[in-house]
Design brief:
With 293 residues, the chain is an all-alpha fold. 71% of the residues lie in helices and 3% in strands.
Length: 293
């Protein structure tokens, strides 16, 4: 098979841009799973709710869908805090956060999907924006604005969260909560309060990721399930709790999926995430930038 150099370069560039979006999708799980040890498999449902929030608002008010995502972050932050309260009092406070907690989040995923089907049906929904459609041409390289804009804002969001976690008092408490809860208690800091804030932040990121998703492609209620494997593969591959590792893993997965879709067909792309996850667990369980035992 003869491979065109231009086609190869464009596939790699498209994969890097897709990886930026995957970073936005995965950052919430990096916080909840990587830092709080909460396997929130319902995160794609919250992302999809962010997509439909952008769709509803832009359908009635002609404003930018990404702006809607930013405006909705406080709403999703509160939703995240309420969700964690339910999870804590029902499971974590009783030491039953393993299987029972996983079932709780699976139930949330199912309820959200069914609710969206009942309200919106199974038709694909999309939004309109000036940058959806145009493409920037740099020689043989094509940069679609519908992926370039989310790519830039995704990296800015992840960078802002990294600064928040490393430079602020609350951020450092979030980093410490999964490592030494006893030390936090000795400093008169309740781990529950820290986790409440952190989980709220993890869900708040879903509103932006959802806005990016509906910009990149039309959405329908079951599409969230396609991202469960992807986001956990990225978080594990990058190293639990590592933002730089998560970004690198998102780029690797984006490029791998883009190359697979370009040269072998898009139907093979979903298998790439699970393949990378299995290889990571087999050869580098700590992830790319994770700490070795």
């Amino acid at each position: 098979m003869v491979i065109s150099l231009d086609l190869l370069v464009n596939a790699i560039v498209a994969g890097i841009l897709l990886g930026g979006f995957y970073a936005a999708v995965s950052v919430g799980i990096t916080i909840s799973f990587g830092m709080l040890d909460i396997a929130n498999i319902a995160q794609p449902a919250f992302i999809l709710l962010g997509s439909y929030a952008a769709y509803i608002v832009t359908s009635y008010v002609r404003i930018d869908p990404i702006l809607v995502g930013f405006v909705m972050t406080p709403v999703f932050y509160v939703i995240g805090m309420v969700t964690y309260r339910l999870y804590y009092y029902a499971f974590e406070s009783r030491g039953e956060q393993a299987i029972q907690g996983l079932a709780f989040f699976f139930g949330l995923l199912f309820v959200a999907e069914v609710s969206l089907v009942l309200i919106f049906g199974v038709d694909y929904r999309f939004v309109e924006a000036p940058y959806i459609g145009p493409t920037l041409h740099l020689g043989p390289i094509d940069l679609a604005f519908r992926t370039l804009v989310p790519f830039v804002i995704s990296l800015l969001m992840v960078g802002a969260l990294q600064l928040f976690l490393s430079k602020t008092y609350i951020g450092r408490a979030i980093l410490a909560v999964s490592q030494d809860s006893l030390a936090l208690r000795l400093m008169s800091i309740r781990p529950y309060r820290v986790k409440l804030i952190a989980f709220g932040i993890s869900i708040a990121t879903a509103s932006l990721a959802g806005a990016f998703l509906i910009i990149i492609q039309p959405v329908e209620p079951s599409i969230g399930r396609d991202y469960i494997g992807r986001i956990f593969a990225i978080v594990v591959l990058g190293g639990l709790g590592s933002f730089p590792g998560m970004i690198l893993a998102a780029f690797l997965l984006g490029v791998a999926e883009s190359l697979t879709a370009t040269f072998y067909g898009p139907s093979w792309s979903p298998a790439v995430a699970f393949g990378l996850l299995l290889l990571t667990l087999a050869f580098r369980p700590a992830g790319i930038l994770g700490r070795r035992a």
